[in-house]
C-alpha cells in the first residue's frame, strides 16, 4: 500500500479510537516513513525538521489562550452570557421561542466566522474569546454543539474558497492561481483571475448544502449537557472572575479591538495577544505578578491544539520526504487509462488523503498542482475544470482533518468544559457534511465546465 495512504489511515483510525491525536500523528508519520523507504533515523530527522515549523503556531495558540483567560476575569463573559440568556425570556419559553434563539445564535456565530476570513481576517483568533461565554446559553437551549462546530468550520473554510479577499485572496490568487499558471505555462494553459472564484462556486455550493443538512436535520434535536461554571472553566484555582464593572468592561473592549487590530497590522497573533494582555493588566483585571499563572491557565486550555499543530507539521514533512505523494498520483492514474470521470474522482480523493494528513489546504496546493495540472491537460479538462479539480482537491480534508485549524479552532472554544470531543463532535461531523458534498459537487463541476 502507498505510504501516504497507510500513514493517513493509521492516523485517522487511532484518532477515531480515541487515542490522542498527537500520538496518532507521530505513529502515522513513523509508519509512513518506514513504509516509504526511509530509515528510522531519516524518518525522525524529517519529523523533527517539520516540527520546528509548527512551533510559532503553538506559541500563538498559547498566547490566545492566556488572552482568553484574562478576558474571562474581567466579567465580560458573564455579562454577555446573561444578556443572551434574557433572550430566552422566562423558563416557560415556548419551543418556538427557543428555536428562534437557536437560529439567531447559530447565524451570529456563522457570520462572525465568515467575517474572520475577509472583513476582519483574524481566522480562529476570535473563537477562544467569543465561544466560551456562549456555552452557558447553548446549554440552556440544549443546542447540539456539533451544529455550532459545523457552522464555525463552514465559516472558516468556505469563504476563502470563494471570495478573493482576506485569506481568500491568499488562497485563490497567491497560491491556487499562481501554482496553476506556473504548472500550466509550459503546456499552454492560462488561467485568469476571474476564472478562479467562478469555478469554485459549485464546490462551495455543495458545502452550503452540507451546512443546511447539519443545522436543520442532523443536529437539530436537543442535546443535554451538564451545567458547568463556564466562566470559571479556564480560570486557575484561587481566582474568580471579577464582577462586571465599567472600567473592566471598557478595558476588555479596548483590549479585544487592539489585539485584533494589531494582528491585522503585523500579521502576528502572538504580538496581538500580548498587547491585549498588557492592556487588561493596565486596566486592573489582573496584576503582573499573576502573569505566569495566567499563561499557565491559557496553555492548559490550548496546549493540546498547539501540540497537534506541531505534530501535524512533522507528519507533513515526513510524507514529503518519502516521495510517495508522486507515486500515489501516478499509480492511481495508471489504473484507469483515459477514463475522464474516474480520473477526476481519483484527483479529488488523492487530494483528500493528502490534506487529511497535512491538515492545511494552503500547504496542499503546491504539492499537487505540479502533478495534477499536466494530468488534467492530458485528460482534456478545460481551464475552468482544472481550477475546480486542483482547488477542490486541496480544500478537501481541511474540514474534517484531525490536524486542521478549521476543526481544532471550534474544539478549542466548545470543549472548555470538556463536554465536546474533538474527533466525534468536530472532526467526524464536519467530514461527513462537507467532504462528501465537496467530492460530489467538485466532480460534477469538473465534468460540466
TrEMBL record:
Family matches, as PANTHER family: AMINO ACID TRANSPORTER YUIF-RELATED
Membrane listed as a keyword: yes
Membrane spanning stretches: 104-135, 147-172, 195-217, 246-264, 270-289, 301-319, 339-359, 371-396, 431-448
Domain Na+/H+ antiporter NhaC-like C-terminal: start-end pairs: 152-443
Location of this chain's protein in the cell: Cell membrane
Putative Na+/H+ antiporter N-terminal domain span: 2-87
UniProt-listed InterPro entries: AA_Transporter-Related (IPR052576), Na/H_Antiport_NhaC-like_C (IPR018461), Na_H_antiport_N (IPR032813)
Domain of life: Bacteria
Membrane protein topology class: Multi-pass membrane protein
UniProt keywords, alphabetically: Cell membrane, Membrane, Transmembrane, Transmembrane helix
Pfam families: Na_H_antiport_2, Na_H_antiporter
Protein name per the record: Na+/H+ antiporter NhaC family protein
Amino acid at each position: 500500500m502507498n505510504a501516504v495512504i497507510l500513514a493517513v489511515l493509521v492516523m485517522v483510525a487511532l484518532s477515531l479510537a480515541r487515542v490522542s491525536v498527537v500520538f496518532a500523528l507521530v505513529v502515522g508519520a513513523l509508519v509512513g516513513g518506514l513504509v516509504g523507504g526511509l530509515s528510522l533515523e531519516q524518518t525522525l530527522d524529517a519529523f523533527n525538521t517539520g516540527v520546528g515549523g509548527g512551533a510559532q503556531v503553538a506559541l500563538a495558540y498559547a498566547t490566545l489562550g492566556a488572552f482568553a483567560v484574562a478576558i474571562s476575569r474581567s466579567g465580560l463573559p458573564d455579562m454577555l452570557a446573561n444578556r443572551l440568556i434574557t433572550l430566552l425570556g422566562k423558563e416557560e419559553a415556548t419551543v418556538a421561542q427557543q428555536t428562534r434563539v437557536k437560529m439567531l445564535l447559530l447565524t451570529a456565530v456563522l457570520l462572525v466566522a465568515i467575517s474572520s476570513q475577509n472583513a476582519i481576517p483574524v481566522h480562529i483568533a476570535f473563537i477562544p474569546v467569543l465561544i466560551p461565554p456562549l456555552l452557558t446559553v447553548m446549554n440552556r437551549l440544549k443546542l447540539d454543539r456539533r451544529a455550532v462546530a459545523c457552522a464555525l468550520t463552514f465559516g472558516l473554510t468556505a469563504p476563502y474558497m470563494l471570495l478573493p479577499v482576506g485569506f481568500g485572496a491568499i488562497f485563490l490568487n497567491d497560491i491556487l492561481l499562481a501554482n496553476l499558471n506556473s504548472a500550466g505555462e509550459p503546456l499552454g494553459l492560462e488561467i485568469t483571475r476571474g476564472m478562479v472564484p467562478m469555478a469554485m462556486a459549485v464546490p462551495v455550493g455543495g458545502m452550503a448544502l452540507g451546512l443546511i443538512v447539519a443545522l436543520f436535520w442532523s443536529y437539530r434535536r436537543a442535546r443535554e449537557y451538564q451545567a458547568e461554571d463556564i466562566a470559571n472553566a479556564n480560570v486557575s484555582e484561587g481566582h474568580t472572575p471579577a464582577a462586571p464593572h465599567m472600567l473592566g468592561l471598557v478595558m476588555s473592549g479596548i483590549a479585544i479591538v487592539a489585539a485584533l487590530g494589531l494582528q491585522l497590522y503585523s500579521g502576528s497573533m502572538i504580538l496581538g495577544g500580548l498587547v491585549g494582555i498588557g492592556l487588561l493588566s493596565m486596566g486592573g483585571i489582573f496584576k503582573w505578578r499573576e502573569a505566569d499563572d495566567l499563561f499557565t491557565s491559557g496553555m492548559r486550555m490550548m496546549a493540546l491544539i498547539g501540540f497537534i499543530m506541531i505534530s501535524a507539521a512533522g507528519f507533513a514533512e515526513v510524507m514529503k520526504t518519502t516521495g510517495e505523494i508522486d507515486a500515489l498520483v501516478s499509480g492511481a492514474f495508471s489504473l484507469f487509462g483515459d477514463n475522464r470521470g474516474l480520473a477526476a474522482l481519483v484527483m479529488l480523493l488523492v487530494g483528500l488523503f493528502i490534506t487529511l494528513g497535512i491538515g492545511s489546504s494552503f500547504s496542499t496546493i503546491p504539492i499537487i498542482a505540479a502533478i495534477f495540472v499536466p494530468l488534467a491537460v492530458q485528460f482534456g479538462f478545460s481551464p475552468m475544470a482544472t481550477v475546480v479539480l486542483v482547488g477542490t482537491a486541496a480544500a478537501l480534508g481541511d474540514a474534517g482533518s484531525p490536524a486542521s485549524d478549521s476543526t481544532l479552532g471550534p474544539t478549542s472554544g466548545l470543549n472548555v468544559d470538556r463536554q465536546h470531543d474533538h474527533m466525534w463532535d468536530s472532526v467526524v461531523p464536519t467530514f461527513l457534511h462537507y467532504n462528501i458534498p465537496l467530492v460530489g459537487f467538485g466532480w460534477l463541476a469538473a465534468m460540466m465546465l
